[in-house]
Recover the amino acids of this structure.
């Protein structure tokens, strides 16, 4: 079945640093989504990507849909303590297919 | 606009019991999907309901079932609970189909003892 590899698994960074994480798929996806999850809460949608090559920003967050349609990355610039959490990528292969999630990247930010 | 709501937020059950979880989607959303989240397996798709019909199903045993009502609210049922069913169960709603962007509720934390 389809698999998503998300890396890194965890990151420990200093406040103010930039962060980059990515996901790769074993097959082509038509949609890439990035979510953030805080402890005890459900994932919150950060950015949605629907077209190969698409680059979308949401404040300090920027995500891109890879040209090969098998990867996506998320960048966070000038990190702040509230960026702490687990970031998930999710992809969908067809318009009616279910979402496949990566295992998450746990971000820790030192003030 | 209110977000996705799930009840209860926390639940403790014992092996062999059954449990019913509830999800109310965002107003106007007609599709509801259910996911199981565990530390080992991550987020895994259970099933999706649209207009009271199950449209898509993940690889879970028949002990996991669900339904959707005419007001789009959905319930998920797990029968004969096992220890491995302990997880965070998340509900997500979208406007019309899995192809639309999904918005998640806060989840129900189920602990099976």
């Amino acid at each position: 079945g389809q698999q998503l590899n998300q890396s890194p698994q965890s990151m420990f960074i200093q406040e103010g640093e930039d962060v980059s994480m990515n996901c790769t798929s074993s097959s082509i996806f038509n949609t890439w989504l990035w979510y953030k999850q805080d402890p005890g809460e459900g994932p919150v949608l950060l950015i949605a990507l629907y077209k190969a090559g698409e680059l979308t920003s949401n404040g300090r967050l920027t995500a891109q849909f890879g040209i090969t349609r098998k990867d996506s990355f998320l960048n966070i610039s000038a990190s702040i303590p509230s960026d702490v959490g687990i970031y998930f990528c999710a992809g969908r292969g067809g318009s009616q297919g279910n979402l496949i999630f990566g295992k998450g990247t746990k971000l820790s930010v030192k003030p | 606009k209110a977000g996705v709501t799930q009840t209860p937020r926390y639940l403790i059950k014992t092996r062999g019991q059954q449990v019913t979880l509830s999800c109310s989607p965002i107003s106007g959303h007609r599709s509801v999907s259910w996911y199981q989240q565990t530390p080992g397996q991550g987020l895994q798709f259970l099933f999706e309901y649209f207009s009271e019909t199950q449209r898509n199903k993940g690889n879970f045993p028949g002990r996991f079932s669900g339904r959707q009502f005419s007001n789009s609210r959905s319930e998920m049922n797990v029968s004969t609970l096992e220890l491995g069913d302990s997880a965070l169960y998340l509900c997500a709603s979208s406007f019309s189909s899995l192809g639309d962007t999904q918005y998640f509720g806060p989840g129900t934390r189920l602990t099976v003892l």
Observations:
- The radius of gyration of chain B is 13 Å.
- Chain B touches chain A through 24 residues (CB under 8 Å).
- DSSP finds no helices and eleven strands in chain B.
